[in-house]
């Protein structure tokens, strides 16, 4: 996918999450940033919410789950940013199948509503909230939407991210591109945590999963300087957050995916040289699937990872372990 923010104009390629390059249908949705309105927008300056603003946290635990079997996220309320597409959508479907009530947050309403419809069609529970994760007021309203809809918040999955095609080397990357990538990928995670942490505390604690990237760990053969810097920031932010809240019932871990076959990547793989330079470094010889990332996110989101915080979970087909690839 690509996004620019010239004159508040946002261009997004919205692709079917499971489509192959040949099958993929590109529909460009132009959204004025003004049209991304929080459902529960409030006036006045943005501020960090306090416990007293929400209904009683134990309401969330009265949920019986969508199936009879015990799910790994039964009675949990999960908020996923960027859940309209790619890994976020795959996580929404998987988490709902594990008993979670899912708040699908995305900048593109049609994409987010499609995810909600898919979750409901599978027998799960979900609600949509429009958000630009770089906008404090909208992020505050997003968290309020979770609290008022489901009475709690137990998992905050900061997944939304962008990689514009003109994010390149340090000399070539336009300053506006640097600013927008940092705003969405790093400030978006900061804002999610700023408003999400009080909600998690008010709900008795929970798990934060922040999406970084393998490029935060090793230099990319194809430069994307703003994206790499933003994802490095996500790792550092996550570690510090984890330490600060470790004794208050909040865990925070980062996911570092390698190349995953989602609209974000497939857009860039249209350039054969970009694709060759990227894919040659994967020992497993293929990009990952969104569902494979979602399963790793489920581990971090659920109590299966109850003694993990401040960690980095690398899911990269062996990239970061390789000195040379098999061929
Ligand atoms: N696909 C990969 O190869 C790969 C690899 C490493 C890390 N990641 C990271 O994983 C995360 C998900 O990537 P993906 O490949 O599923 O992306 P994607 O483009 O398929 O989906 C991202 C979703 O985020 C939404 N979004 C974009 N900007 C937003 C904003 N400002 N506010 C709210 N929503 C916004 C989009 O509308 C879209 O629905 C991103 O943080 C990305 O950087 C992806």
Instruction: Provide the CATH architecture.
Output: 3-Layer(aba) Sandwich
Helix content: 25-40%
Specify the overall morphology. globular
Strand content: 15-25%
CATH class (first level) name: Alpha Beta
Per DSSP, the total helix count is 8
For the termini, the CA-CA separation is: 30 Å
Q: Outline the low-pLDDT stretches.
A: 1-52, 55-67
Total beta strands: 11
CATH superfamily: NAD(P)-binding Rossmann-like Domain
What small molecules are bound in this structure?
nicotinamide-adenine-dinucleotide
Describe the protein in words:
Helices cover 35% and strands 17% of the residues. It has one domain: Rossmann fold, CATH 3.40.50.720. The radius of gyration is 19 Å and the shape is globular. With 327 residues, it is α/β, with parallel strands linked by helices. The model is unreliable at 1-52 and 55-67 (pLDDT under 50). It starts with 8 loop residues before the first strand and ends in a 12-residue tail after the last strand. The structure holds nicotinamide-adenine-dinucleotide. Residues 1, 3, 12, 81-82, 84-88, 106-108, 111, 131-134, 159-163, 184, 211, 213, 257, 259-260, 262-265 line the site of nicotinamide-adenine-dinucleotide. Nicotinamide-adenine-dinucleotide binds at residues 1, 3, 12, 81-82, 84-88, 106-108, 111, 131-134, 159-163, 184, 211, 213, 257, 259-260, 262-265.
